[in-house]
Amino acid sequence: MSRSETQSDTYSESHVILTSVRILAPFTLTYGLFLALHGTDTPGGSFQGGAIIGVTVLMLAFAFGIEPTRRWLKNSFITGLVTGGVVIFAATGLATIALGGAFLEFDAFTDAFGLSHHWGMEAIEVGGVALIVSGVVVTLFFAMAAGFTPERYNAVQEDGAEVSDDD
Amino acid sequence: MSVLAYTLAIFILLTAIATALFRDVLSAIVVFGAYSLGMAILYTFLLAPDVAMTEAAISAGVTTILLLLTISRTTRPSTDRIFERVNVPAVVVVGAFVTVLGTLVLPEMYAVGDQTAPIWGWPGLDISPSVYYLENTVADTHAHNAVSAVLASYRGFDTFGEAIVIFAAAIAVLIVLKREVFT
């Protein structure tokens, strides 16, 4: 099966799918954010929340087509999510060392700024793990969808040409 | 465990066997998704909602989507047979493994909620780690979810390593596919 055929397969014009995704997407996004932001007090957590936030994008891609979603999502945004998560996580850990504690010893924040231990956990859960997981889920999806095409802009251009090349 | 939990266990067993036996890959992926959802519900029966959510989101959700995406790029061989031919040597090996596990290992395991299980402590130990976490989480971390407290606070460095592993996995996929963009 050629590349252009595959893409027309995954692009659905079914009204049922489009409508249900339109209705469901705000709820899944809210639920993902709830799990991530409220994970320290209720079941769930940033890993689950981040995964559900990522899945919301996957759902949109399934309904509205992978290529339009890929163009809508800026690469710098996903790069920022994934690397930003790692940087925030590491920075939180190093900050506690700078304040005289051990790596990720949040009580150092309490001594220095009077912040509850709780906020250190929120920082690495919401600012670290949730960002990394949601970014990586989206990355895996688009990387799998693209396969062995080097760059997305070239890939988009090739698609137009490929339609006539295939027969 | 209730009747519902046993029904669920049988459902999981059947979907697991169906996943192995279906010849059509699409059917196998669909029953595998059903298997993951069954596992997620079983985890809630075992009072592990955090694990259940992970199973539902990652295994039933993301994995199914990634597998579907992968087979949409392949061809589907047309066939009349619904089930794969059973590979007898493989069944013998797996059957022997399951028999050994079922007869020798399972009877030695502690029942769910057994108060004499080592997780509640063992001779010579003042307080077991699990009991310590359950008793001191709120005082130590001001968080009410003990699982989150263990992951983010008590075992924060391990979680840092796991986050880096996920990050490395994304980078590795991009390197294998020779791509330089995340989307």
Automatic annotation (TrEMBL), chain A:
A matching Pfam family: MnhB
Q: Where in the cell is it found?
A: Cell membrane
Under InterPro entries, the record lists:
CPA3_antiporter_subunitB (IPR050622), MnhB (IPR007182)
Keyword field contains Cytoplasm: no
Q: Where does it mainly reside?
A: membrane
Q: Per its UniProt entry, which superkingdom is the organism in?
A: Archaea
Q: Which UniProt keywords apply?
A: Cell membrane, Membrane, Transmembrane, Transmembrane helix
Answer yes or no on keyword Cell membrane: yes
This protein's GO CC annotations: plasma membrane
Membrane topology according to the record: Multi-pass membrane protein
Q: Where do transmembrane segments lie in this chain?
A: 21-40, 46-66, 78-104, 124-148
Q: Where is the Na+/H+ antiporter MnhB subunit-related protein domain?
A: 18-139
- Record's protein name: Monovalent cation/H+ antiporter subunit B
- Source taxonomy: Archaea, Methanobacteriati, Methanobacteriota, Stenosarchaea group, Halobacteria
UniProtKB/TrEMBL annotation, chain B:
Q: What is its main location?
A: membrane
| Domain MrpA C-terminal/MbhE, chain residue ranges per copy | 130-179
Query: Could you tell me which InterPro entries the record lists for this protein?
Result: CPA3_Na-H_Antiporter_A (IPR050616), MrpA_C/MbhD (IPR025383), MrpA_C/MbhE (IPR046806), Nuo/plastoQ_OxRdtase_6_NuoJ (IPR042106)
TM region(s), chain numbering: 6-22, 29-48, 54-74, 86-106, 160-177
What are the GO cellular component annotations? plasma membrane
Q: Which residues form the MrpA C-terminal/MbhD domain?
A: 10-75
* Keywords, in A-Z order: Cell membrane, Membrane, Transmembrane, Transmembrane helix, Transport
Q: What is this protein called?
A: Monovalent cation/H+ antiporter subunit B
Membrane-protein topology: Multi-pass membrane protein
Specify the domain of life of the species encoding this protein.
Answer: Archaea
Q: Where in the cell is it found?
A: Cell membrane
Gene3D superfamilies according to UniProt:
NADH-ubiquinone/plastoquinone oxidoreductase chain 6, subunit NuoJ (1.20.120.1200)
The organism named in the record is Natrialba taiwanensis DSM 12281
